[in-house]
Amino acid sequence: MSDQELMGAMHEVLKAFRLVKQRPAPIADGLPVGSLGVLAAIRKREHCHMKELAVEHALDPSTISRAVAGLVRAGLVARVADPADGRASTLHLTEQGNTVLDGTHAHYEQRLAAALHDWTPDEIAAFTASLNRFAHDLIAQENPTPSLEAAR
């Protein structure tokens, strides 16, 4: 496969993701798609700080701050005073946030299952492994943001 063919395939993958993002889960209607990743990261890192989210997503802290503010306004995330540092707050999903995230995950899982309906389990496993390797290698090449420890 030539570099040009690989770039063409990458273009098609990015196009497919744009199309998927244009039809969000009904339960998350009106919520920016990027906010869903932040919502998932908050649930994964219960009691996390915005600084940690910024590092994890390789985003500017102001971008995360705006996303979190929108999630708080929507009632999906709550800020709680950090017992270790009263000046800071930790982030937690509300019951509604968990419901929206669960519904969104189910929606996208159904869409992926439909797209992969005629793939064998071995093909799906190989594809998953290749995607993970590609993402890891690309991130490593791009000199990722400092570790969470350095951000504190």
In a few lines, what is going on in this structure?
The chain has helices at 3-21, 33-44, 50-57, 61-73, 95-115, 121-141, 148-151, and strands spanning 77-82, 85-93.
How does this structure look, described?
- With 152 residues, this protein is mostly helical.
- It has a domain at 24-115: Winged helix-like DNA-binding domain superfamily/Winged helix DNA-binding domain (Arc Repressor Mutant, subunit A, Orthogonal Bundle), CATH 1.10.10.
- The protein is built from 7 helices and 2 strands.
- It has helices at 3-21, 33-44, 50-57, 61-73, 95-115, 121-141, 148-151; strands at residues 77-82, 85-93.
- The chain is globular, with a radius of gyration of 18 Å.
- The model is unreliable at 147-152 (pLDDT under 50).
Q: Average pLDDT value?
A: 86
* Secondary structure: helix percent: 55-70%
Discrete helix count: 7
Low-confidence segments, ≥5 residues, pLDDT <50? 147-152
Largest sheet descriptor: 2 strands, antiparallel
Q: How much β-strand is present in the residues? A: 5-15%
Q: Provide the succession of SSEs.
A: HHHHEEHHH
Architecture (CATH level 2) name of one domain = Orthogonal Bundle
Distance between the termini: 44 Å
The total of beta strands comes to 2
Please compute the radius of gyration using only Cα atoms.
Answer: 18 Å
State the CATH class of one domain.
Mainly Alpha
Query: What global shape is seen?
Result: globular
> Can you tell me the CATH topology of one domain?
Arc Repressor Mutant, subunit A
Oligomeric state, counting identical vs distinct chains: single chain
What structural class do you assign from the helix and strand content? mainly alpha
Strand numbers in spatial order across the main sheet = 1-2
CATH superfamily of one domain: Winged helix-like DNA-binding domain superfamily/Winged helix DNA-binding domain
